[in-house]
Design brief:
With 204 residues, the chain is of the alpha/beta class. It is 18% helix and 21% strand. The protein has a five-stranded mixed β-sheet, with no helix packed on it. A five-stranded mixed β-sheet has the order 5-8-11-13-14, with no helix packed on it. The longest helix is centred in the last third of the chain and has 11 residues.
């Protein structure tokens, strides 16, 4: 388990960050915050982590960059191939107690991840999603979906389908800072389809 990073991260994140934890590449989009206290679980063969722009990460969030699951179909779940090899010589045997990695972890833009969330290996959390505090995310989360629980289940979608489609066309998080500054008065309101269409025509 790894909580500290190999290099000191900057106090601000205006341009995004990219660094490595063991063999895993960590890519963080601009203005995303909370990633400095992530508890990244990586044992040396983990996958990569990609986080988009303007994402909010609460304290205590853990992310498995390796599967981390012991194979419960075997007679023993103990990881003999990795623990006390000098005594049991488990690395000489073909079997393994660990399941294969499921892939990179991808977290989108403008995502809000609540306190003490656990995200498993291979999960994709799409743009605009919200993850409730203390949730265990075991499968992909759709755009603007609110999920919570252990395992995390869909509670509702934040907006109507047509509003979500327009927000995904606008992709305000990709715009230059000066454009986002102009948009803030709209971003702090509930979505309006007519206004969203106007903004798409102006900025896209």
């Amino acid at each position: 388990m790894l909580k500290l990073f190999k290099k000191k991260l900057s106090d601000t994140n205006k341009n995004g960050e990219e660094y490595y934890v063991k063999k895993s590449k960590i890519s963080v989009g601009r203005y995303t915050y909370g990633y400095k206290t992530l508890n990244l679980i990586e044992y040396g063969a983990g996958k990569d982590l990609y986080i988009g722009n303007f994402t909010s990460i609460g304290p205590g969030v853990k992310i498995f960059l390796e599967n981390g699951a012991h194979d419960n179909t075997l007679m023993s779940t103990y990881p003999f191939k990795h623990m006390y090899k000098d005594i049991f010589e488990g690395d000489k045997h073909s079997g393994s107690n660990f399941k294969n990695n499921k892939g990179d972890v991808r977290i989108g833009n403008d995502v809000w991840i609540g306190m003490d969330v656990l995200i498993l290996n291979g999960v994709k959390i799409s743009d605009g999603a919200i993850i409730g505090a203390n949730s265990v995310v075991t499968k992909d989360v759709l755009p603007y979906e609110f999920v919570a629980g252990n395992p995390a289940k869909s509670i509702r979608f934040r907006f109507e389908k047509n509003e979500i489609e327009l927000l995904l066309k606008l992709k305000w998080w990709e715009l230059e800072d000066k454009c986002i500054k102009e948009l803030i008065s709209n971003l702090l309101l509930k979505p309006d389809t007519n206004k969203l269409k106007e903004l798409i025509l102006k900025y896209r």
